[in-house]
């Protein structure tokens, strides 16, 4: 954001709880402008400080950060943020206003107290622009109805989501037929014969077409060659289209340590990742398959009946369904069928909520993270940063199918990963475009 020319040009940003839970250091990301934390936000954070989830970590870290910044100062007074280029912050107690959001909206709730804090600042800081920052769309709409300027927290957001659509796979037409023939005959060819002066992108996949034939290929940045990509079976699962072939190639490629597979429901993301993991089971100590828990209707799992296993089963069932599908490719008497049961019984293959995996050592592990679009960028970073020797991580998800209220297609962890790590030699990304679950599923995705 442009620097303020005078004190009156310095804005006042009022932060909602959702911003703190998204990024505990968000208070430091408003340049020279001032930041206000309503006391209601601290009260809400107090409920989040216990637990092992990422939001609990963010709450605890913010409280420590605030304590460190305040030192011996009274936090309801303006206090300098660290650094000469930063503004000030203060905690605003519940004010008395001429306009009361609780009365206007007919209900007393914490969101309305936060709106009252912004209204109070508008009345008392008339020469300055007051902006409410929240990742809660509904709260932003309520703010605008009260003539309060409201914005999403933009730091870390992907600016051009359409660019992610062109990451990982490319189609090249008018390729010399001799080049395609050489790829079929020799399996690989120097990249200059295919790409010419085009920019090389590490681990990019290509559909190369001439007038008469075509070939699937992969750019090997280490050898600077273009390699033919063939359809391969992985634990009896065969890719059904070019994108699935590319995804499985990346999953099976030992040079690639980090893979993201994006696609709508029914495109085979999780199935391919799990099949690829089973095919490489001898190369890893364990296979972890995990997904974040996003409670239905925003209710905690404590609302569900039964013990903890019964509460979690509904969330893990889709993962077990994929495992059963692979297992049912074989007869019960086949060793491959029995091997899957053996891997589960010996905990060589573990299916659990992501919260149960967090904190464990990730050495010699094939780690699949399903529904990664429901993770924050910090959660994705935390998972990858725990990778030890001989660990491979595959993230699967659909960046447009967000199930948590404070994330969107531009701010979720999967989009963040694709944008930040693209073209890295350890990383590959594939977008699956064609649904292969059934014609009925495709009808739902296309028409409903």
UniProtKB/TrEMBL annotation:
Residues 11-141 form the PIN domain. One of its GO terms (molecular function) is ATP binding. It comes from the Bacteria. InterPro entries: P-loop_NTPase, PhoH, PhoH2-like, PIN-like_dom_sf, PIN_dom. This is PhoH-like protein. Gene3D superfamilies: 5'-nuclease (3.40.50.1010), P-loop containing nucleotide triphosphate hydrolases (3.40.50.300). SMART domains: PINc. It comes from Cecembia lonarensis (strain CCUG 58316 / KCTC 22772 / LW9). Keywords: ATP-binding, Nucleotide-binding. GO terms for cellular component: cytosol. The gene is ybeZ_2.
């Amino acid at each position: 954001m442009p620097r303020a020319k005078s004190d009156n040009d310095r804005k006042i940003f009022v932060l909602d709880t959702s911003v703190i839970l998204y990024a505990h250091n968000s208070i430091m990301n408003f340049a020279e402008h001032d930041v206000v934390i309503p006391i209601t936000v601290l009260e809400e954070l107090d409920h989040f400080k216990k637990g092992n989830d990422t939001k609990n970590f963010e709450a605890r870290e913010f409280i420590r950060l605030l304590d460190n910044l305040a030192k011996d100062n009274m936090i309801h007074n303006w206090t300098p943020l660290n650094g000469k280029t930063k503004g000030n912050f203060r905690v605003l107690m519940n004010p008395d206003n001429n306009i009361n959001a609780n009365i206007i909206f007919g209900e007393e709730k914490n969101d309305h107290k936060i709106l009252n804090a912004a209204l109070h600042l508008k009345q008392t800081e008339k020469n300055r622009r007051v902006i409410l920052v929240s990742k809660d769309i509904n709260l932003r709409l309520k703010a605008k109805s009260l003539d309060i300027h409201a914005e999403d927290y933009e730091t870390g957001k992907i600016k051009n989501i359409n660019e992610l659509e062109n990451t990982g796979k490319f189609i090249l037409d008018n390729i010399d037929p001799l080049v395609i023939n050489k790829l079929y005959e020799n399996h690989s060819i120097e990249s200059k014969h295919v790409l010419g002066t085009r920019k090389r992108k590490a681990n990019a996949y290509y559909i190369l077409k001439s007038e008469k034939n075509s070939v699937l290929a992969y750019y090997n940045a280490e050898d600077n060659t273009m390699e033919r990509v063939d359809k391969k079976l992985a634990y009896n699962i065969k890719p059904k289209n070019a994108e699935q072939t590319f995804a499985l190639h990346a999953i099976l490629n030992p040079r690639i340590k980090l893979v993201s597979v994006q696609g709508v429901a029914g495109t085979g993301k999780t199935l391919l990742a799990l099949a690829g993991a089973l095919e490489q089971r001898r190369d890893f100590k364990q296979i972890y398959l995990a997904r974040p828990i996003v409670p239905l209707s925003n209710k905690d799992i404590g609302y569900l009946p039964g013990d903890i296993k019964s509460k979690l089963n509904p969330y893990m069932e889709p993962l077990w369904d994929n495992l059963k599908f692979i297992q049912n490719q074989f007869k019960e008497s086949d060793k491959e069928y029995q091997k899957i049961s053996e891997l589960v019984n010996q905990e060589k293959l573990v299916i659990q909520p992501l919260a149960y995996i967090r904190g464990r050592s990730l050495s010699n592990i094939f780690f699949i993270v399903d529904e990664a679009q429901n993770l924050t960028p910090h959660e994705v970073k935390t998972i990858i940063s725990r990778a030890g020797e001989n660990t491979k991580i595959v993230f699967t998800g659909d960046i447009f199918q967000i199930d948590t209220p404070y994330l969107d297609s531009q701010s979720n962890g999967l989009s963040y990963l694709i944008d930040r790590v693209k073209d890295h030699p350890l990383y590959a990304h594939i977008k699956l475009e064609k649904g292969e679950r059934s014609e009925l599923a495709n009808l739902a995705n296309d028409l409903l």
